Amino acid sequence: MQRAFLQHISSFVICLMTLASVYQSSGCAISFELFPPKNAEGVDLLCKNVERLMQFSPKYFTCTYGAGGSSRGTTLEVLQKVKQITNLPVASHLTCVGSTVEELEGYLADAREIGVDYIVALRGDPPQGTTKFEVTEGGLKYANELVELIRGKFDDLGIAVAGYPETHQEAVDFQTDLVNLKRKVDAGADIVITQLFYHNDDFYRFRDACQAIGIEVPIVPGILPVTNFKQAKRIASMCKASIPAELESAMSEKEDAAHQFRVGVDHARQQTIDLLKHGVPGIHYYVLNKSEAAAELLDGLQLAGV
User: What EC number is given for this enzyme (predicted)?
Assistant: First the structure.
């Protein structure tokens, strides 16, 4: 009875943790990103993978939604289940795409109602079939405006924003992109989570530039373990991330799925070890609703005593 009470109190304290405070300890905070499954079977599998990932003591889970907000309802359902399973804080992605301010406020109210703790505030990519972001009538144009909205009316929610080590694909140049990022941080963001990257030097260059321009919130690297080379190239091309020549060469040696998995996981593990040596406050893993790659990567670190 006493043990159950203490576990309840511990869970309550964890869920009161602010997003900024997650990164104030001396260790490296781990978090995982999910996306909403298309059916009930996918939800069940996601829950099993979440349970497996809990062995690595993550600080929180995030969940995206489909293009144009097509699966926002499912995102909230997933996050509610994840919170029930883990007793950890959860974060919902939110974009400006296809929504009025009133609709954004409605979603934020619903998210807070079901227990969402943090928001990953994004402008969002253009809807599928288009190449240019169009502002919805009565909506918002930039992510910093979304941050201002959340901070102004939902100040109890933590806010993460996106950073781009290799520059956002629509930005004029690297420096302009940094100025835009600082605008989001100045509007009230607690942390920056980066887009995926495969060259750690790109992240260090980006982090140094952020510090030079006066961005003082935690900069959290985002890592996607490569497990399928064709898929990795497609995702990397979408977000303007370059794949190292040595990784491409090693993975393309064989089309064998097991070989590509091992090579990709090892690369992500080496990225992680190097990032830890360089004092990152945390690492955000894009797990694509699967636990195998992240589990093997992190298991390997534990076995090595990292």
Answer: 1.5.1.54
